[in-house]
From TrEMBL:
It is found in: Cytoplasm. Belongs to the PEP-utilizing enzyme family. Transmembrane segments: none annotated. It comes from Shewanella surugensis. The lineage of its organism: Bacteria, Pseudomonadati, Pseudomonadota, Gammaproteobacteria, Alteromonadales. This is phosphoenolpyruvate--protein phosphotransferase.
Length: 325
């Protein structure tokens, strides 16, 4: 099977009834670059910048960030790279910048809330992204934990400032594409209101599930209750996919759902366009996509939307996959 999966590298992720999906990779480590490129990923769907920030004992300088980011852009040779602004707080801490104790860190100072309160940090990072991708059209800036319009407004001021400064220095850049993670449930309903301010959206199914279910999957007392194919999650992801289509917003999904075959069947039924996952899991998901029909997945989705139990959903899909062979 390994050999067979490997041979898929140059083949498209296309279903038996000719629906093509773009498969991208999640990364953050320079060590992931080679496996990512080798897996045949069509770009980086989620570059977690908190990872390069975690090595070292202080915030990386702008020049240091430029060097790291540039290697990613160069490795992917003009393919899209969705670079997320620093997403720390909650369960992600920097050793040299511990965030003081919070009673509810998941609901606290994290993602864009943190970076907008540390604007110089955000400015440095955005400048580094623009510099690292200069001359290329690959930069997609992805904002984590967006909850309110105000955050979009504040970010666009930072981006404009950074761009203007670098332009004045003579740097030649393309204006980047800007989008947000759909991971705070509040973001879903605001897609219609934000559609004309965004170039794309990306579903962060890990946090979206955590917040919809009010379940921390890292808490051993409740972790076994967490499941991203919970009916509430499926219905909300489906609503997001439909809103994205209605408002013509390019959409991807970059949480763990993207590499869970059971969930991917449902996502294919929804008509998802783009999935991003770790390089190691990409070949298997591509193999799955190449061996199903969207029409088949649509029927399974329709069945599952009527089920109210997560185990029944998993069983139903597993059985359908077994029947298919
Ligand atoms: C997510 O929340 O689904 C996601 C991809 O972001 P992270 O796992 O880095 O929080
Ligand atoms: Mg997240």
């Amino acid at each position: 099977v390994t050999i067979k999966l490997h041979s898929l590298k140059t083949l498209a992720a296309i279903t038996l009834d000719h629906y093509e999906v773009e498969l991208l990779t999640n990364t953050g480590l320079l060590a992931d670059i080679t496996p990512g490129v080798k897996s045949g990923a069509q770009g980086v769907g989620l570059y977690r910048t908190e990872i390069p920030f975690m090595v070292g004992d202080s915030f990386p300088s702008e020049d240091e960030q430029v060097r790291v980011y540039r290697r990613v852009f160069e490795a992917y040779e003009g393919k899209p790279v969705y670079m997320r602004t620093l997403d720390i707080g909650g369960d992600k801490q920097l050793p040299y910048f511990p965030i003081r104790h919070e009673d509810n860190p998941a609901l606290g100072w994290r993602g864009i809330r943190f970076t907008l309160d540390n604007i110089q940090l955000l400015m440095t990072q955005v400048r580094a992204m623009l510099r690292a991708s200069s001359g290329m059209k690959s930069l997609h800036i992805l904002l984590p934990m967006v909850t309110s319009s105000h955050e979009l407004t504040q970010f666009s001021i930072v981006l404009k400032d950074a761009y203007t400064q670098l332009q004045a220095d003579g740097l030649s850049m393309h204006w980047p594409k800007v989008g947000i993670m759909i991971e705070v449930p509040a973001a879903v309903s605001q897609i219609p209101l934000w559609a004309n301010r965004l170039d794309f959206i990306s579903i962060g199914s890990n946090d979206l599930s955590q917040y919809l279910l009010a379940l921390d999957r890292n808490n051993p007392h409740v972790a076994d209750r967490y499941d991203h194919v919970h009916p509430a999650v499926i219905h909300e992801v489906y609503r997001t996919v439909q809103l994205a289509k209605q408002y013509q917003l390019p959409l991807s999904l970059c949480g763990e759902m993207a590499s869970d075959p059971i969930a991917v069947v449902l996502l294919m039924g929804m008509g998802i366009q783009r999935l991003s996952m770790s390089a190691a899991k990409l070949p298997r998901i591509k193999w799955l996509i190449r061996n199903i029909e969207v029409q088949w997945a649509q029927q399974i989705l329709a069945d599952c939307l009527l089920l109210d139990d997560v185990d029944d959903i998993r069983c139903h899909i597993q059985q359908a996959m077994k029947d298919k062979g």
